Each structure stands twice: as C-alpha cells, then as structure tokens.
Amino acid sequence: MDDKAKGRSRRDFLKLAGTSLPAAAVAVATAGEAVEAAEATPQGSDLRMTDHIRTYLETARF
Amino acid sequence: MQMYAETAPSSLPKSQIAQEDILRSDLYAFLGALLAAPPTQAQLTQICGLVGEDTDIGQGITALARLAASRNAAAVRREYDALFIGLARGELLPYASYYLTGFLHEKPLARLRADLAQHGIARNPDVKEPEDHIATLCEVMAGSIRGIYGPSVMSLEDQAAFFAAHLEPWAGHFFTDLEAAKGSDFYAPVGKIGRAFMKVETEAFRLG
User: Fold this and answer.
1) CB contact under 8 A, B34 and A32
2) B5-9: which pairs have CB atoms within 8 A and are 24 or more residues apart?
3) What residues in B contact A48, CB-CB < 8 Å?
4) pTM to 2 decimals?
5) B133: which strand partners?
6) Strand pairing partners for B13?
7) Residues B38-64: pLDDT tens digits?
8) Helix, coil or strand: residue B125
C-alpha cells in the first residue's frame, strides 16, 4: 500500500468509527478550558493546592 | 492542567489538518475537559443536547447526554471527587505511572516529561500536579493534533509514537475501570467513550 492509500484507509476507518462529535460537545471542551484558565490565574506566586495535588500528596505518603 | 509551547516543533502547517484529525482532536479535548474537573451546570446543559451516532463512541455520548439531563452539577462533582479525589484517595488513580508501575511519579512520568520536552511542550508553571494524568494526556493529544503548541501540527508518526508510549499501554485499562467503577454513574459513559476511542486510535495508527 502506498502512503496515499494508507492515509485514505485510515481516514475511512476513522469516519466509520464515529469519532465525530456533535458540535455542542466541542463547546463543552472549550468552556472547560475557559474555566480552567480562570482558575489558573494566580493570586500570588505560591504553589496551587489543587485537588489533584492533594490526592497526589496523600498517595505518595508511605 | 494547561500545557503550552516552549519551542516550535517542525511539521505540517495547520491548514492541512484533515477533517478526521480535527474530530479526533475535539474528542480528546472533550474527554480531557470531563476528566480534568467536574462539569459546570452550563457544561452539563450543553451535554444534555448531545446526540451520538450508532457507534460505540456515539452510544456512549447518547448515554452521557441522558445522564446529564437528570443530574445536577453538585451531584456530578460529588461523583468526581469520590472517583478521583476521595478522602485519602479516590477510587481510581488516573495516572500513567500508577497504572504501569503501581506507584506515582515513577519512570513512565519521567519518560513522558522527556517526550514533552522534546516536542517543546511544558506544563504551566502554576500547576504542580504530575503530567501523566489522563486529562493532561488527552489535552496534549488534542493540542498536538491541532498544532496549538507551535506553528505546525505534530506529524502522524510522532502522534503514533506518543500515543504508543504514553496512552496505549494503560488508557484503555483506565477507561474500562472508569466504566465499571463502583462510584461511576455520570462517568460510566465517559469511560465507555474513552475505551472505544482508544481502540479506534490504536487501529487507526496501525492503518496510518
């Protein structure tokens, strides 16, 4: 199979696999980014204690 | 976690991104957003309106939309906390290092950091959590496919290598666990969508 044919079969496969999202789902992801960006605005220069960090610290404790 | 470009990688111009790849990027971004933080009420309302196609991924989306219609943001946040945060820890630890070694902060994270650096991607200095969180990896895939970390997109070969190194070995297991987790309700179809998508990605890279 040449590269073009391979690329085409990959694209056809992806189409059939239904990776397409309804347009509204894209908005969900974009809204999430906006929220995260807002939260990430630092109030100071300190390390942020996010929920993930908290979990991480808990789990790392032996 | 927010990732940004340190240096510009060299690859295809963004105008040449195929429609299928934009859709892949969108699906990664969607999963990344749902796994990075519990949805807001506005996001839940948007999810209510989704209708999927008749594929595994589409059925997951339709199921998620149905749940979004009957759950409120506070309930989904409680579920998210129980699954991923917990009192001592959540039911699941969505980190590559944990899935591959049983510990956080192990070699898979070190390898990921080296690869991210090579592609000129760095984490936002405000964020200190490990980069091998599933949401971050989805975000990196979404951004790399679209080329948001530089003037060009990541080549398909590089995408395949990144996926094979950092997602394929464990993401399918994680999404399967998420789908079946005791505390999963709203997040069960998220697991289903992710599990189906990881299978599709594996197969598509094999064809590519």
Assistant:
1) yes
2) B5/B120, B5/B121, B5/B122, B5/B148, B5/B149, B5/B150, B6/B117, B6/B120, B6/B121, B6/B122, B7/B120, B7/B150, B8/B120, B8/B150, B8/B151, B8/B152, B9/B119, B9/B120, B9/B149, B9/B150, B9/B152, B9/B154
3) 126-128
4) 0.83
5) B95
6) B152
7) 999 999 999 999 988 889 999 999 999
8) coil
